[in-house]
């Protein structure tokens, strides 16, 4: 519901050793295309930067995305990705052939409802 949070647990797998630290973004996009919730931070609340990840390692990363108190009811998209904090440049999402297909991943949909307490 508006004013609450969406809990999200991500599992990352490092395909190779990384030489840069990246920041994760999580976005809640409403049916109107607007951003209604967001949580950005380095992985694992900053305690495990991407330069420390080892090849093939799986990293558990949790987020509580606050939903705007003004968020209208409806179906929302949950998007995630990574970026370089110094430039804002997002990491590309690649297909199996190594071609860029996007700069974010659609994880799924979340339904926001209004509740009335009397």
Question: Which strand order does the major sheet show?
Answer: 3-2-5-8
Rg, rounded, reads 16 Å
Give helix % range: under 10%
The H/E string reads EEEEEEEE
Proportion of beta-strand residues: over 45%
Indicate the mean pLDDT: 94
Detailed description of the structure:
The chain has 118 residues and is mainly beta. Helix content is 0%, strand content 47%. The protein has no helices and eight strands. The protein has strands spanning 5-13, 23-29, 35-41, 58-66, 74-83, 93-94, 100-102, 105-112. The strands form three sheets. It has a four-stranded antiparallel sheet with strand order 3-2-5-8, with no helix packed on it. Strands 1-4 form a two-stranded antiparallel sheet. It has a two-stranded antiparallel ribbon with strand order 6-7. Strand 6 (93-94) and strand 7 (100-102) form a beta hairpin. The radius of gyration is 16 Å and the shape is globular. The model has no long low-confidence stretch (mean pLDDT 94).
């Amino acid at each position: 519901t508006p004013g609450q949070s969406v809990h999200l647990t991500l599992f990352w797998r490092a395909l190779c050793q990384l030489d840069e630290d990246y920041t994760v973004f999580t976005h809640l996009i409403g049916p109107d295309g607007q951003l209604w919730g967001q949580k950005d931070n380095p992985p694992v609340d900053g305690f495990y930067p991407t330069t420390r990840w080892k090849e093939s390692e799986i990293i558990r990363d949790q987020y509580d995305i606050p939903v705007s108190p003004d968020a209208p009811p409806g179906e929302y998209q949950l998007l995630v990705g990574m970026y370089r904090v110094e430039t804002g440049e997002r990491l590309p999402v690649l297909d199996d052939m190594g071609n860029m297909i996007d700069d974010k991943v659609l994880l799924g949909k979340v339904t926001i409802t209004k509740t009335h307490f009397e």
